[in-house]
Amino acid sequence: MNDPLKKYRKQFRVWKNDLRLKRERGYYDNAFASRDLTIPYEESIKREMRKRFPHIRHKAKGTLSILAIYHHYNWENESLKPSLEKFGRVRHYDWAERFNHQKKDWRKSAKSEMNSFLIKQAGQWIKQDATDVIFTYLSGELVSPETCEALKSFGIPMVNLALNDKEHFVGRIRNGQAMGGRDICRFFDICWTSTEDAAKKYCVEGAIPVYLPEGANPEVHRPYNTEKTIDVSFVGQCYGNRHEVIERLTSCGIHVEAYGSGWPNGPLTAEDMVRMYSKSRINLGFGSVIGLSNAYCLKGRDFEIPMSGGLYLTEYHPELDRFYNIGSEIVAYRDFNDLVEKIRFLLSNPEKADEIRRKGYERARREHSWEMRFEKIFHLLGLL
Fold first, then answer.
1. Which CATH superfamily is domain 37-213+370-381 in?
2. 274 by DSSP, 3-state: which?
3. What is the DSSP letter of 4?
4. Crossing angle, helix 370-381 and helix 76-84, to 10 degrees?
5. What is the mean pLDDT of each run of 10 residues along the chain (384 residues)?
6. CB 199 within 8 A of CB 181
7. How remote is the C-alpha of 186 from its chain's centroid?
8. DSSP helix/strand/coil, 316
9. H or E segment to which residue 287 belongs
10. For the packed helices 336-348 and 242-251, what is the interaxial angle rounded to 10 degrees?
11. What single-letter DSSP state applies at residue 188?
12. Do domains 37-213+370-381 and 230-367 have the same CATH topology?
């Protein structure tokens, strides 16, 4: 980054964001402690669901009727929808299909109309066919508390997925409403968060959190029988310190092929992305959260790359220890010098690299599919 002013602006934004998050964490930690709250465990969640939905009877896997409300940004229909279909019939509502066709911006001018139509469409489908569960991937940026309250009034178990509560549990405030999950979470029966330290925030706001990371779809994320022609690759957006790290690796004689928005190579198709994992001797990962210093969260690629048979080398943070044996199933680095050392070791020891790649693949296939994540959620709801 050669422009000093641009560099200082970036540093100021990071400082300001860190300060906001520090205050937010302090507020929720104090409220959690002062109210003597506890994070609910699995059995207590099951008991609460039986109390809320005494009429629910267990059904066989594959027989559920599911209403799924989410927008397909770039990965959802390859991961969420086919995994949900393992449990039964899925009716998927993507509001953007309607509003993109009308050339309206559903984030701004059409948000109110989108919310109204969402309730109307959900009501029509529920009236036509008995629905067992409503799965959503929503935030306050997309829906109002009134919309979530209207969905709740249908009396059907609801679960909402949130993938970046590290930074966006509250997020920006517009017209008094949080763009994250803060103002809508209490209307859902289970709030599925991939951010472990957000659980206290949900409890303070009167919601029931379940900490589960993202997963991968083994029908999409699978190894390809192809020659490994690339030493190191990275697939993901160009932001934060990613460009700087890859430039420094190049200066150390380590060439990294980078793909995604903002890189000269541009983005890959979903299939080419998965092929890239097999073509690469090492697949690089970054665990940091954009706009924050020393803040990390689990990413989709933490599960997609190992399940695709790729050797995964990513930034270390403690949550990784819960899902992998670091060093034997995936590899993690703690700073730039450690990253360089580990890349050189893995490239110089292909047999060891292959062993780690194989064990990571086996662990991901055994424990980290989206189907397994949904199975746990549906068991907690009492549906299976």
1. Response regulator (3.40.50.2300)
2. helix
3. H
4. 50
5. 68 78 93 97 97 94 97 91 97 83 63 91 93 97 96 97 90 92 98 95 98 96 96 92 93 96 93 96 85 69 97 94 97 96 98 98 98 98 96
6. no
7. 20
8. coil
9. none
10. 60
11. S
12. yes
Distance separating alpha carbons of residues 41 and 204, to the nearest angstrom: 16
Q: Which residue intervals of the chain are DSSP H helices?
A: 4-34, 42-52, 76-84, 95-101, 111-128, 145-152, 165-168, 199-204, 242-251, 270-279, 301-307, 336-348, 350-367, 370-381
- Give the pLDDT confidence score for residue 2 in this predicted structure: 58
Residue 167: name the closest of 280, 288, 56 by CA.
288
285: CB partners within 8 A, 6+ apart: 234, 299, 301, 302, 305, 312, 313, 314, 315
- Spell out the domain ranges in the chain: 37-213+370-381, 230-367
Q: What is the CATH number of domain 230-367?
A: 3.40.50.2000
Q: Half-sphere exposure of residue 217, counting CA atoms within 13 Å on the CB side?
A: 17
Structure tokens at 214: 């993202």
What pLDDT was estimated at residue 295? 63
Exposed, middle or buried: residue 46 (CB in 10 Å: 0-12, 13-18, 19+)?
middle
Rounded CA gap, 68 and 70, in Å? Answer: 6
C-alpha span between 342 and 354 (Å, rounded): 14
Contact 290, 238 (CB under 8 A): no
> What does the DSSP assignment read for 325-345?
-BTTTBEEESSHHHHHHHHHH
- Determine the Cα–Cα distance for residues 281 and 255; give it in Å rounded to an integer: 12
Q: Which residue shows structure tokens 């330290």?
A: 197
